[in-house]
Amino acid sequence: MRICVLGGGVIGVTTAYFLARDGHQVTLVERRADVAQETSHANGGQLSYSYVAPLADPSVLPKLPQWLFSRDAALRFVPRLDPHQWRWCVEFLRACTRARSQQTTAELLGLGFLSQRLMHEIVARESLDFDYVRNGKLVVFRDREGFEGACRQAQYQAKFGCEQHALDGAACVALEPALAHIGGDIAGGIHTPGEEAGDCDSFTRHLARAAQRDGVQLQLATELSGLRINESNVQAAITSQGDIEADAFVMCLGFQSQPMLASLGVSVPVYPLKGYSLTLPDAREHGAPRVSVTDAHHKVVYAPLGERLRIAGMVDLTGMSAHADRERIALLTRQARETFPQAGDYDAIQTWTGMRPATPDSKPLIGTTRFRNLWMNTGHGALGFTLACGSAQLLADRLANRALPLDGDAFVPARWTR
Ligand SMILES: Cc1cc2nc3c(=O)[nH]c(=O)nc-3n(C[C@H](O)[C@H](O)[C@H](O)COP(=O)(O)OP(=O)(O)OC[C@H]3O[C@@H](n4cnc5c(N)ncnc54)[C@H](O)[C@@H]3O)c2cc1C
Asked: What's residue 408's pLDDT?
């Protein structure tokens, strides 16, 4: 089959790779000069297979006033005159029940474990240089209540096969000595030894080269302006380099999937959650963590990427503009410096802004649309790097009408578009 994949982030590239390995003739369209130049460029770098619990959870409800009124909150909401934003918020609130949160966690754990197995296969098969480490992850809590809630969550997840251990503050510092500076503030931590990290940008670029070897045609610097459709089919992608005809099309445009699909009358609740990252170029051996760390209090993640330390955080529900807010970057820098003061030279940090393509229930949209040959693989929110391989496999299996390795119905777009 001739398949045109739209978008060259980590999702589009893994999709193209898996489809090409199935024997399809794949063309990937990307407007930038290279792949992974937008949200997949400098994200947190954590392959966080056991930390997939959705943002929508009853525990967030008491925090809503803080999100609205505090400029220093980890999550910030600025209401816009935008019905799409309001619809997303309403659906988000509807998803904030214990039952839905637990169901979603179970479904995403399945997709996470599938992704991890496939990542291991890819790493064994391809020589991809992306600072990949199996270094485990430690989530530290500065308040007793948060730690106890995390212990309950770990107990719930144990029945799905997650190996996680609760540690007291001293044990957290023993595991990751770079935490010594805030050791006295740590109420406890959850350690997940099987977690991994890597540079999403390098992974995506190297996988794109491997996909080219398998026959994928990369059409870079090619802007998609629309799709030519008849009643039930897409006939061609209309691009700055001319029309591309294919038997099937897969929409992987990240947060821009929503306006592109809306132009065809297909409505999906994908909204950008803006975030920021900092990269410390020469992380110091004893001051920077070697285990991936999440500071649950500030909602900031730290991942070692070779010589570098990647620091990421902030969730801003503030509109479609990717404009970098200097105050948010300054806040993130201050929090990192206070947590790991000896990690490196903070005056040399590189800053970055990205737009997480988020659905209200944190589950990606993998499947077809009301146009028979238009598929989507999008809406991965805060976990696109983590879930990329499993999502691409699921999409390829569905397209080939094969038996699915898990309950694919959990991710069908029809749950929102019907
Ligand atoms: C601060 C931050 C930290 C994060 N940390 C992590 C983490 O630790 N672990 C994790 O798993 N995930 C993390 N994520 C989430 C992850 O980065 C995203 O889920 C993922 O990158 C989304 O990939 P994508 O391919 O869907 O989107 P993108 O990477 O945005 O790709 C979409 C592509 O489509 C292209 N495109 C758009 N419109 C057009 C058009 N009209 N024509 C042609 N091309 C077009 C864009 O140029 C882009 O390359 C983080 C995100 C942020 C912002």
From this structure: 85
State yes or no: 112 annotated in a binding site.
Answer: no
Residue nearest to atom 37 of ligand 1 (CA): 253
Tell me: is residue 123 an annotated ligand-binding position. no
Q: What is the mean pLDDT of residues 358-387?
A: 97
pLDDT number for residue 284: 87
Q: What ranges make up the beta strands (E) of 193-270?
A: 196-197, 217-219, 224-229, 234-239, 242-245, 248-251
Candidates 13, 40, 353: which one to mutate for ligand 1, based on the most atoms within 8 Å of Cβ? 40
- Note the pLDDT tens digit of each residue in 234-286: 999 999 999 999 999 999 999 999 999 999 999 999 999 999 999 999 998 88
Range 71-81 average pLDDT: 90
Q: Is 182 annotated as a binding residue?
A: no
Within 8 A by CB and 6+ apart from 226, the residues are: 238, 260, 263
Q: Under a CB-based contact definition with an 8 Å cutoff, are residues 92 and 360 in contact?
A: yes
- Set out the domains of the chain in order of their start, with CATH numbers: 2-40+202-269+362-417 (3.50.50.60), 46-196+271-358 (3.30.9.10)
Confidence (pLDDT) at 395: 98
Q: Whose CA is nearest to atom 35 of ligand 1?
A: 7
